[in-house]
Specification:
mainly alpha; two-stranded antiparallel ribbon; 2 strands; about 0% strand
């Protein structure tokens, strides 16, 4: 179980922080008590047992920190696995396959260049999806290698296909799809990839359209 506590200022404390605070409090208290029995120039009252207790407590709590740190890492790993699987399910769901088909058609026809065209926003659902993935990666909720393993091809392809649309949109709002831009940069740093956008969009239209028609939920 992963415990979260709040300190006096309301800041969330993780398990390692809690143990460290306890460690410092105990060691300081034990050391102070031991030191109080020693007078200047007189070691006859040196509290050896007290110092041994303080040191033993220090190492025991240090071990507890290591255990808590390892547990926290396991928790974050499990959370990242759960999130990436949910994103993968969403990306390949019947509803989202329709978004991908519409986005590919919009980008291929460059319909976004016509402000009055209803299709001008069809690509947004897919770009927003990768924006969310990028945001969670930046905040540490997703593991970079998991994102690369699951979505690398789609991130690289959609970013390149939508590069002109993204650039023009960000001229009006620089914060728009900022995390998707950074996500693409990080994926490109791991493994660069270039593809002819028209080729990819044609494949996405065919693949998404066929997947929608053959999706199991349509026969249920």
């Amino acid at each position: 179980m992963h415990l979260i506590y709040l300190d006096s200022t309301g800041r969330a404390l993780s398990n390692p922080e809690i143990v460290m605070k306890a460690l410092l409090a105990v060691v300081v208290s034990a050391g102070t008590n031991a030191a109080q029995t020693v007078q200047p120039g007189d070691l006859s009252h040196f509290d050896l047992a007290g110092w041994i207790t303080a040191l033993a407590t220090f190492f025991l709590l240090l071990a507890a920190i290591v255990v808590a740190w390892a547990e926290s890492r396991r928790h974050r790993f499990a959370q990242s696995v759960e999130l990436i699987l949910k994103f993968d399910d969403q990306f390949n769901s019947l509803e989202f396959l329709k978004y991908r088909d519409a986005a590919a058609k919009c980008l291929k026809a460059q319909a976004y260049k016509t402000a009055a065209d209803k299709c001008s926003k069809d690509a947004d659902a897919v770009l927003d999806f990768f924006e969310t993935v990028g945001y969670l990666l930046r905040r540490g909720a997703l593991d970079e290698q998991m994102v690369w393993h699951t979505f690398w091809h789609c991130i690289m392809k959609y970013y390149q296909a939508a590069a002109e649309y993204i650039t023009e949109a960000r001229k009006k709002d620089s914060a728009l799809w900022q995390d998707f831009v950074e996500l693409h940069r990080r994926m490109e740093a791991i493994e660069p990839y270039t593809i002819a956008s028209d080729e990819f969009l044609s494949e996405e239209i065919d693949c998404s359209g066929d997947s929608v028609r053959d999706h199991p939920s349509r026969s249920s």
